[in-house]
From TrEMBL:
The lineage of its organism: Bacteria, Candidatus Colwelliibacteriota. Residues 130-157 have a biased composition (Basic and acidic residues). Part of the 50S ribosomal subunit. This is Large ribosomal subunit protein uL22. InterPro entries: Ribosomal_uL22, Ribosomal_uL22_bac/chlpt-type, Ribosomal_uL22_bac/org-type, Ribosomal_uL22_sf. The globular domain of the protein is located near the polypeptide exit tunnel on the outside of the subunit, while an extended beta-hairpin is found that lines the wall of the exit tunnel in the center of the 70S ribosome. HAMAP family: Ribosomal_uL22_B. Belongs to the universal ribosomal protein uL22 family. Pfam families: Ribosomal_L22. Residues 126-157 are annotated as: Disordered. One of its GO terms (biological process) is translation. GO terms for cellular component: cytosolic large ribosomal subunit. GO terms for molecular function: rRNA binding; structural constituent of ribosome. It comes from Candidatus Colwellbacteria bacterium RIFCSPHIGHO2_12_FULL_44_17.
Length: 175
């Protein structure tokens, strides 16, 4: 069985927090893990999802493996560099703050007995922006001003230069 791997170095999230997500997807098929990570609310989920997609792309492009037969053989989260900071406290003391980074390594392997994926991911459609010519050709819609009521002053429309029309609903002085 063919293996492929991808690395993510210097992820600015503590390993303890990244392992929560990593342990969740260990042993899953690539499609299942992708679906799980897409809807996870953990902060490390998008980074691991990007790493998983990189590993799948490595398998497809470099080793010509089928995406549907890939599963996560192992995912390892190691401690990376640590930034040391200090928080000033009472009586001239300081509390150390350790900002720990992570290294994540994911290993994918093929499995012929894998069930077909329950989820399908479709490529996003790109929204085309209008060119200047198309904007000029498009007819501009004119907004109609609301008609004033019989009293007129209570439903008065106030406009200042550069602002949208605002309907006055309270008038302090009666004229």
């Amino acid at each position: 069985m063919a293996e492929t791997q991808a690395k993510l170095n210097n992820l600015r999230i503590a390993p303890r927090k990244v392992r929560l997500v990593a342990d969740l997807i260990k042993g899953m098929s690539a499609a299942e893990a992708r679906a799980e990570l897409t809807f996870s609310k953990k902060r490390s989920a998008p980074a691991i999802l990007k790493l998983l997609q990189s590993a799948v792309a490595n398998a497809k492009n470099n080793q010509k493996l089928e995406e549907d037969k890939l599963y996560i053989k192992s995912i390892r989260v190691d401690k990376g560099p640590m930034l040391k900071r200090a928080l000033p406290r009472a009586r001239g003391m300081a509390t150390p703050i350790h900002k720990i980074w992570s290294h994540v390594i994911i290993v994918l392997e093929t499995n012929e007995d894998l069930k077909p994926p329950r989820f399908t991911f479709h490529a996003r459609k790109k929204i085309g922006r209008k060119t200047k010519e198309e904007k000029r050709e498009a007819p501009k819609e004119k907004q109609e001003k609301p008609k004033l009521s019989e009293e007129g002053k209570k439903d008065e429309i106030v406009t200042k230069k550069g602002e949208a029309p605002v309907k006055k609903f309270f008038q302090r002085k009666v004229i």
